[in-house]
Sequence to fold (277 residues):
Amino acid sequence: MLALGVYNTLEIVRDREPGLYLSDDQGNEVLLPNKYVPENFEIGDKIDVFVYLDSSERIVATTLEPYATVNSFAYLKCTSVSTIGAFLDWGLEKDLFVPFKEQASKMRVNSWYLVYVYLDSETNRLVASSKTNRFLDNSLVLLSAYDKVDVIASHPSPHGWNMIVNQKYLGLVYADEIFQKITPGDRLQGYVKKVRPDGKIDLTLQRHGFRGIEPNAQQILKELELSGGYIDLNDKSDPEDIKEVFQLSKKSFKKAIGSLYKARKINIEDGGIRLMD
Fold:
């Protein structure tokens, strides 16, 4: 059966005036309009296409790559608002619909929103919702401390930033763990600090403890190389200055330069750190 909202690998079965007709293993067919037909093809070739409903609610295939597929999160721009909802640009000819009831706040044209794309069971249409928390479930968190995870910045809170973790869970990076600018929709790498008994996930964007020394040290070496071998920061520098240059806490910075000094990669001088020859 043709799957809406995802990529399908289909066979080219007929070439007709409106385009190519493609078929799955069960004989279900879909049109690939002429504008998306590849220059070179043969009947029987397999082709990867994205399948969705066009403006006439017909199933259609495209070789365009959407910014999101079904059951995933994306940060998208609102292109228009109508009497029934809002529409978002997701990289295809037909914009993605967001019903009013699925808007966490009233959407405005040219504003950007973090949304979840799903298939509406009642209408069989691909739609989006900015009420992202309801698509996350922390009732059974299959993560442990120190696990590396993919996170998407959701929204700020009084304590820090709420993050979508591995497209499944809701987590939090506390403000004192943040050493870089974060905006909604940012995709980052994070690490689990703790999974609480109630399922809440504490995150960090820095590898913690001894696990964090090596990547932080590599980052410092890279900055030194870009700066001609010297940076006027050391273990006595102001934490805000360190944060601005390296996006690290002073504690993490001191651990990293300590490891580099022991490895004879740098010298720690009164005014800063210097790359050794």
Observations:
- The first strand starts at residue 7 and ends at 16.
